[in-house]
Design a protein that fits this description.
- This protein is of the alpha+beta class and 194 residues long.
- It has five helices and ten strands.
- Strands 1, 2, 3, 4, 5, 6, 7, 8, 9 and 10 form a ten-stranded antiparallel β-sheet that branches.
- 23% of the residues are buried.
């Protein structure tokens, strides 16, 4: 497991082409074709992961099943700690995926967790030196039974860099204000409004 820096930038759809022009001017290369991502998030009955995220508690987790366009499923656990952030990702079978969707997941820190929220979006992938850049757009939120809850007007840019990266260099390369943003917390707030 390796820690990394993750910073987020929120832009609207009108700023997206300007940002892509900026990437092109820096010689940034696209790593993969844009693909659709479908995440199913888990939480316990008290929504403790949601509350930990809102309060900025450390350490904290997000647990999700991620499915790409190619239909492969991965169990991902994202951990934020005082040392930084890291993610584990393990491909799982369709049978285990179906079992988790129905029966849930047991986490040593959060206890029994159930499926609570789907988030779907399109992601583009780029690389600049040692920085990975992703752009997420057309973000839609659904309940666990696939009831549409709403969408996000923002496009989310994530900068992912090694933990030893000089933050001044990261700010120099991408001099755009950073934001705090979580698809899970935004989606869960929409779910709780219904």
């Amino acid at each position: 497991m390796s820690f990394r820096i993750e910073e987020k930038i929120l832009i609207n759809k009108y700023q997206l082409s300007e940002f892509k022009e900026y990437l092109a001017s820096k010689g940034v290369e696209q790593l993969y074709n844009t693909r659709k991502i479908n995440n199913l998030y888990f939480d316990n009955t008290q929504f403790q992961m949601y509350h930990d995220s809102i309060e900025g508690c450390l350490p904290r987790k997000k647990i999700r099943l991620r499915n790409y366009t190619d239909q492969k499923s991965f169990l991902e656990i994202k951990i934020s700690s005082t040392e930084g952030r890291f993610k584990t990702s393990n491909e799982i079978s369709k049978e285990k995926t179906d079992l988790m969707k129905n029966a849930g997941f047991f986490d040593n820190d959060y206890g029994p967790c159930k499926a609570v929220l789907y988030v779907e979006y399109f992601r583009s992938y780029y690389k600049f030196n040692d920085i990975r850049i992703t752009i997420d757009k057309e973000i839609n939120y659904f309940s666990k039974d696939r009831k549409f809850l709403g969408f996000d007007r923002n496009q989310i840019i994530e900068l992912k860099a090694p933990i030893q990266k000089n933050l001044n260099d990261l700010l120099r390369d991408f001099p755009i204000p950073r934001s705090r943003f979580s698809k899970y917390t935004n989606g869960l707030e929409k779910l709780l409004e219904h």
